[in-house]
Amino acid sequence: MRLSDLKQGERGRIKSFHSSELELKLMEMGCIPGEEVVVEQIAPLGDPISIKVAGYSLSLRKNEANEIIIER
User: Fold this and answer.
1) What is the pTM of this model?
2) Could you tell me the CA-to-CA distances from 58 to 11, 41, 48 in Å, in that order?
3) Which range marks the domain in which residue 21 is found?
4) What total of structural domains would you count in the chain?
5) Whole-angstrom Cα distance, residue 28 to residue 44?
6) How distant, in Å, are the alpha carbons of 27, 44, 45, 50, 64 from that of 31?
7) CA distance 62 to 46
8) How far apart are CA 34 and CA 62, in angstroms?
9) What values do phi and psi take at 56, rounded to 5?
10) Tens digit of each residue's pLDDT (9 = 90 or more) over 22-35
């Protein structure tokens, strides 16, 4: 399952990344495998997505959230 598949209020744990292109950027922002994420808000048109990870809020574009593989 991908982070972009979660609905507002749902949570999951980061398992891996789909591609290595954004992996370093996402890890620098706190999206590290094993870290729990909670979807806080989703914009009306679905982009961006606000998540809570590593104790802070982070906004991601839908294509970035689509790169994060999670487990529930």
Assistant:
1) 0.84
2) 14, 10, 10
3) 3-71
4) 1
5) 27
6) 5, 24, 23, 13, 11
7) 7
8) 21
9) -140, 165
10) 888 888 888 889 99
